[in-house]
What does this fold into?
Amino acid sequence: MEIQWFPGHMAKTRKMMEENIALVDAVVEVVDARIPYSSKNPYLDELWRRRPRILALNKTDLADPVKTELWKRWYEAQGYGVVLLDALHGTGIAQIGPMAKRLCQEKIQKEAAKGRQERALRLMITGIPNVGKSTVINRIIGRKEAAKTGNKPGVTRTKQWIRLRGGIELLDTPGMLWPKFEDPKIGERIACIGSIKAENLDAYTVAVLLLGLLREEYGELLRERYKLTAEEMQADNEQLLLLIGAHRGHRVSGGHIDWERTARVILDEFRNGKMGRITLEVPEDERSAEKNTGGEDQTVSRDEPV
Ligand code: G4P
It folds into this structure.
C-alpha cells in the first residue's frame, strides 16, 4: 500500500521546522495516544537530538488506558518527559509548563552561572497533522477559537510568541512534521485513525485493515458492539465486515450488503470511540519495527517524496 502525503512540500516544511526549532529551548511533540509510535516522527530525533523534549500523548480519552501507561513508561525510559493529554477537555495541559521548566533546569542554571539575565523559556508544539497540535496550543493559552494553521506547509506566518505564566513563551504556530511511512503498517494505522486522508485508500480497504488489527486484541469489543457470535468471529476480515453489515441491516436493493456503508460505519464508530478505548500498537511493535528497518538508520532520505 502506498500513501501519498504532501510530497512537494516536504522540503519547505522541513525548512520552516528547522528555522523555528532553532529559536526554542524545548519542544513538545504531540502524538496520538492510539498510535504513539506511528504518529511520532523520527526526524525530530535527528534534528533535536537529546535536548529537552516532551512527548505529549494526546487523545487519551480515546486510547486504552492500560496501553497508555505502557507507552508512558516506555518513552520515559528513553529520556522523554511524557504528559498524557486529553486536549479536548483540557486534561493534563497544566503539566506541560512545569515539565518544560524541569527539563530545562540545567540550561537555566548554566546561563545563570555565566551571569546572564533570567529570560523566558521558549517552547514550541510540533507533530504530524491532526494529532491535536492546535487544540493543545489553544488549551495552553486559554483560547477558544481554533488556530488552524499548522497543516499548510509553505504558508509563511509572522512568528508570534505568547507569554504564559511562569516565565514561558510559546510559539503560536505549531511545527508541522510528516508521518513516517517506510513501514506500510505505520501508514495503515494512520489511515485507521483517520488522521490523514489517504487518497488512494478507500474506506472499505481501511475498514478491513482495522478489523484485522482489532480482532487481535479487541475481539471482545467487536463481538459485543456488532453482536457477532464466536463462530462468526472465525470469518476472515472481509467476511467479518459483511457479517457486521448484515447484523446492522445495511442492505442495498436486491438484498446485497451495502459494504461501503458498513465500512464507513465501522471507521466512524472506531474513530469516535464508540467501540471503546482502543490503542492499535504496543511498545513491543516499536521494538520489532526497529529491528525490521535497521533502527536508527531508517532516517535516511526522509525528505524524499514518498
Ligand atoms: P492539528 O492541529 O494537530 O492538526 O489537530 P487539531 O488541533 O486541529 O485537532 C484535530 C482533531 O482532533 C479536532 O477534531 C480536535 O477537536 C480533535 N482533538 C484534539 N485533541 C483531542 C483529544 O484530546 N481528544 C479527542 N477526542 N479529540 C481531540 P475536529 O475538529 O472534529 O476534526 P476532525 O475530527 O473532524 O478531523
In short: The longest strand covers residues 26-32. The mean pLDDT is 85. The beta strands are 26-32, 53-58, 81-84, 121-127, 161-164, 168-171, 175-176. Residues 203-226 form the longest helix (24 residues).
